[in-house]
Amino acid sequence: MENFAVTEHLVLRPMASGDAAALAAYRSDPVQARYQSWETPYAVETAQALIAQMRGVRFAQPGSWLQVAIESAGRLIGDVAVRVDGDDPRQAEVGFTLAADAQGRGFATEALRAVISLLFAEHGLHRVTAVCDTRNDRSVALLERVGMRREAHHRKSAWWKGEWTEEYVYAVLAEEWRDEKPGVP
């Protein structure tokens, strides 16, 4: 199994069957799941099925979601979801989840920057987007920190977990992207 990227602190790689327990654990955290599509608790069997479903999916494969494993010090700490548009493979959407005990150390920023860089530099994409609940202050800050700009505010546009929610849409174009590495202006 080949890694997608190795950064200063992380390995970004395909999910493996041995990741099921860690994936289920951080997806079972109600705080982490609040703005996500799944419900808690998140069973290990559900995690195993998701990992099995992704086994044949390549990075940047149009039309398919892929959870890219974020590994630190040999441990799965989260994932970056990537879906290249099946109708227009020059565009992609990303999302992310990080285990609570791994937050606040720059791992999500490092992982998201690496994935966006791969999409632009190695796969020739034109545009990358992300959607988040307007109440998710940490995700809003992350998207802005990596250089994405807010393009839209959809008011009460999504029925989510029993309530109307509002969403921000963020995007960055290949021509705007600057792969920020430590020590590079």
From TrEMBL:
Superkingdom in the source lineage: Bacteria
What Gene3D superfamilies does the record point to? 3.40.630.30
Cite the N-acetyltransferase domain residue spans from the record. Answer: 10-175
Q: Does the keyword Chaperone apply?
A: no
Q: What's the Enzyme Commission number for this chain?
A: 2.3.1.82
Enumerate the UniProt keywords alphabetically.
Acyltransferase, Transferase
PANTHER family (alphabetical)? GNAT FAMILY, PUTATIVE (AFU_ORTHOLOGUE AFUA_3G00765)-RELATED-RELATED, N-ACETYLTRANSFERASE DOMAIN-CONTAINING PROTEIN
According to the UniProt entry, its GO molecular function terms are: aminoglycoside 6'-N-acetyltransferase activity
UniProt xrefs under PROSITE patterns: GNAT
Query: What name does this protein carry?
Result: Aminoglycoside 6'-N-acetyltransferase
The UniProt entry, under InterPro entries, shows:
Acyl_CoA_acyltransferase, GNAT_dom, N-acetyltransferase
How would you classify this enzyme at the top EC level? transferase
Under the heading SUPFAM superfamilies, the entry gives: Acyl-CoA N-acyltransferases (Nat) (SSF55729)
Organism name? Cellulomonas cellasea
